[in-house]
UniProtKB/TrEMBL annotation:
Pfam families membership: DHC_N1
UniProt superkingdom: Eukaryota
Protein known as: Dynein heavy chain
Boundaries of every Dynein heavy chain tail domain copy: 280-569
InterPro entries: Dynein_heavy_tail
UniProt source species: Sugiyamaella lignohabitans
Length: 577
């Protein structure tokens, strides 16, 4: 394929007009097949059946490739892996004995999900057009695997912990979150740590803890996006209730809409209204509404499990589901159904329906729960990039709690469980942030500064939690509820204990270092990463300061924020002992 570039908008060639040789479609198709082999474990037989058999002799894959090559707007194509049986019209014939080991592949410019889609590879074009003579892989194209849905392994096998049918559950939200957390985030951080200056001679290091920098803002937005996807993945939301209507009622509603009339029983033929079979069917449908509505009304969750965001999202989604259900129950289809039952001496079902499904009362109660849940500032805590942001997030959370809790019907016991989950979120956020700081590699003065900042967060929590305790006691007194102890398990306290322990250890370590200087008359200076250098003094057999430095090199490799066990303590004791 040859194309002229440099053409002006008037149709007159520019002086810089050149003939550019574009990649042949067969080269792109060959590249796609190679990608399928490497990333999707595609077999030659499957690829041949998909793209070269007589049943696939149409020009569709070639046409997609041609547009992808020549059109600047065509920025991506999708290689879709499907299980046999998804599209009988387009799939090749296959030996039934091989069906469990075979897949079918398609190339398309648009991504469309289907139940039999196993995985997708997005092939993204870096530049406007694909040019011949330039390597495709890496320079002009990049491929990303996008697992979709519950991917079935090609060879069915049971894996401990997985579903017994051998399927590997992988939701789209999980895939997106994994790409953001394990690929995009680290890539962004690594790229931004050192950026070449315009002169290409000096590398500039970007401080992403500086809230004023554009890079810091972008990183925070990326963290918030990752957090939002994680919430979608983890949400324990309440499903909407969908209630069926009788076909005769649906037809009546359609007729009323077409004739621009209000729905009415008068639009239903008297033959139906006097038909016992129709009335029985209508009665059965109304009975069938009761159970799913009761399931929604009774829906709850254990507040001590999951995350704080799951608790918040549960009640918000239940309120939405109840509100939509309440609107549906007032719709003409439902009211006319119940009116017909009343008018035909079948009021028992209609009365039972109204008694057994207290939708409005439940909605009112849940809405008062949601006074506390709406605009709950949890994201600010989990997405904090600095210790200062974390402290501010703790203040915002307790300010919201102490302000909204008084007017909410949310039980005190659930509120305490919610705060425990928030404490766990704080613990995880601190672990993530402090691990990036590499505390054991900091010199002692820098470590003390970090310890002071973290201690400020703990003190802020304690101060605002005490205020919540007073609010909770006041709420219990006003409601006349039975007294319950206002206590929580502060999960983040283990981080405080751990850092206090390390501060004590490093203080003793620093004191010993200073003592060695005085005893041996060493002239030492300590570098930023904790290593030591010596000058003008020689020891015949042993250099105590050097030995101490080597011992500390072992200690600083330990993950001091791993609070799942006390292995770090054993390592410290083993080195110092």
């Amino acid at each position: 394929m040859t194309e002229v570039v440099g053409q002006s908008t008037t149709g007159i060639p520019d002086s810089g007009m050149l003939d550019v040789e574009l990649v042949d479609p067969s080269v792109v198709l060959n590249y796609v097949c190679n990608v399928a082999k490497v990333l999707l474990a595609a077999s030659d037989d499957d690829l041949n059946r998909s793209f070269t058999d007589k049943q696939r002799s149409n020009s569709f894959p070639k046409k997609v490739c041609e547009e992808f090559i020549a059109e600047p707007e065509a920025t991506a194509i999708f290689l879709v892996k499907k299980s046999i049986g998804s599209s009988e019209e387009t799939q090749p014939e296959i030996d039934p004995e091989q069906i469990n080991l075979s897949f079918f592949y398609e190339i398309d410019a648009k991504l469309q999900q289907s139940p039999d889609t196993q995985a997708v590879v997005a092939i993204i074009k870096k530049n406007g057009k694909l040019r011949s003579g330039i390597i495709l892989d890496g320079l002009q194209l990049q491929a990303i695997v996008l697992p979709i849905g519950a991917a079935k392994s090609s060879v069915q096998q049971t894996v401990p912990g997985d579903d017994q049918d051998g399927s590997i559950q992988s939701s789209p939200f999980e895939v997106i979150h994994s790409i953001l957390h394990f690929a995009v985030g680290p890539y962004f951080d690594a790229f931004c740590k050192t950026i070449q200056s315009p002169s290409h001679s000096v590398s500039a290091t970007i401080d992403m803890t500086d809230e004023r920098s554009a890079t810091s803002v972008a990183r925070k937005k990326l963290t918030e996006l990752e957090l939002s996807i994680a919430h979608l993945q983890q949400n324990n939301e309440v499903n909407e209730v969908v209630l069926p209507l009788h076909p005769v009622i649906e037809h009546m509603l359609q007729t009323a809409a077409q004739e621009s009339r209000d729905p009415s029983i008068d639009l239903i033929s008297s033959e139906y209204l006097e038909n016992n079979q129709f009335l029985t069917s209508l009665q059965d449908i109304a009975k069938g509404w009761i159970k799913p509505i009761q399931v929604l009304i009774d829906a709850t969750r254990d507040p001590k499990t999951g995350t704080a965001m799951q608790e918040v999202n549960f009640w918000l989604s239940k309120e939405i589901a109840l509100r939509n259900l309440a609107l549906f129950m007032k719709s003409p289809g439902v009211t006319i159904t119940l009116d017909i039952l009343y008018n035909n001496n079948r009021a028992g079902v209609a009365n039972r329906f109204r008694v057994d499904t207290p939708i409005e009362r439940t909605l009112e109660s849940v809405s008062k729960y949601c006074q506390l849940m709406k605009d709950f500032p949890l994201d600010e805590l989990v997405s904090a990039l600095t210790l200062g942001d974390m402290k501010l997030a703790v203040i915002q959370i307790f300010t919201h709690l102490n302000k909204k809790f008084r007017g909410s019907l949310y039980p005190v016991s659930r509120a305490l469980a919610l705060i425990e989950n928030i404490s766990n979120d704080l613990k995880l956020a601190l672990q993530s942030l402090l691990r990036e700081r590499k505390l054991m590699y900091l010199d002692f003065s820098a470590f003390k500064e970090q310890h002071v900042e973290v201690t400020t967060i703990f003190n802020t929590w304690d101060e605002h939690y005490k205020e919540f305790v007073n609010v909770a006691r006041d709420v219990i007194r006003k409601k006349g509820d039975a007294f319950i102890p206002i206590r929580i398990t502060a999960h983040h306290a283990v981080i405080k204990e751990r850092l206090d322990y390390i501060l004590d250890f490093r203080a003793k370590h620093d004191q010993m270092y200073q003592t060695l200087i005085k005893v041996f008359g060493k002239q030492l200076k300590r570098s930023v990463n904790g290593d030591f250098t010596e000058a003008n003094v020689e020891f015949v057999d042993l250099n105590p300061v050097e030995e101490m430095s080597l011992a500390y090199d072992i200690v600083k490799q330990v993950d001091i924020l791993d609070i799942s066990s006390s292995k770090y303590e054993l390592a410290v004791i083993g080195v110092l002992g």
